[in-house]
């Protein structure tokens, strides 16, 4: 399958191309560098659209930073918000206009992130608390970032139902660069950056969070592959987490039955960080 991958140089983009070799990826990013085939800005339709031509699918990952992170509850408009919405519109329009079969959109757990915000830290211990966001959880964005992702899912629904392109919204959990690709990754990065000490309460809370939210790089690539191979979905969304025993983003059975997602990893299988 010929696939255009936007934002290809980022953490998720490299996870996909590092672990999938069954598809012919055209790797697009806003700046040239290793692993980039095409330089184009998704905010500019005329720049983007020619690169969509001839592809069976688009995987849209590209993101302009600056909306305010997931911890920012600001309501005001900003330029980064406009940039990201422009990119989502351009990719969706170009995919429809040029006859792509499917569009895979990097949504986020932050599209339902108020479940976590309102229930932390109990939500990190799902088996005891019972707090979860199932497949039927409505949008509950925790930030302008999460709001952008919710909007992208809804635009994808319009494209799917009105124009016939298959749409897959992936509400990605916590995917990290190779050095931190494990459920102790965020905690260990905090140690490396001097923000806390190993074994502190802050460290332990990060481990508990990641053991529910982590998606390994190979499981992320597998979920994308499942969506690219599927020909049954009109519009749907799936949580991008590994088969974590304590996951609170809980639609694994739906993802398995709908697109065949079978994650290989589980955060609970780790009882400590890897040796360095």
Structural features, described:
With 276 residues, the protein is α/β, with parallel strands linked by helices. It has a single domain (2-177, 216-269), classed as Rossmann fold (3-Layer(aba) Sandwich). It has helices at 11-19, 45-52, 79-97, 114-119, 126-129, 144-163, 185-192, 201-213, 217-229, 252-259, and strands at 2-6, 24-29, 38-39, 57-60, 102-108, 133-134, 166-172, 235-240, 249-250. Strands 3-2-1-4-5-7-8 form a seven-stranded parallel β-sheet, with helices on both faces. Strand 4, helix 3 and strand 5 (102-108) form a beta-alpha-beta unit. The radius of gyration is 18 Å and the shape is globular. The mean pLDDT is 96.
Quick structural gist:
With 276 residues, the chain is α/β, with parallel strands linked by helices. It has helices spanning 11-19, 45-52, 79-97, 114-119, 126-129, 144-163, 185-192, 201-213, 217-229, 252-259; strands at residues 2-6, 24-29, 38-39, 57-60, 102-108, 133-134, 166-172, 235-240, 249-250. The model has no long low-confidence stretch (mean pLDDT 96).
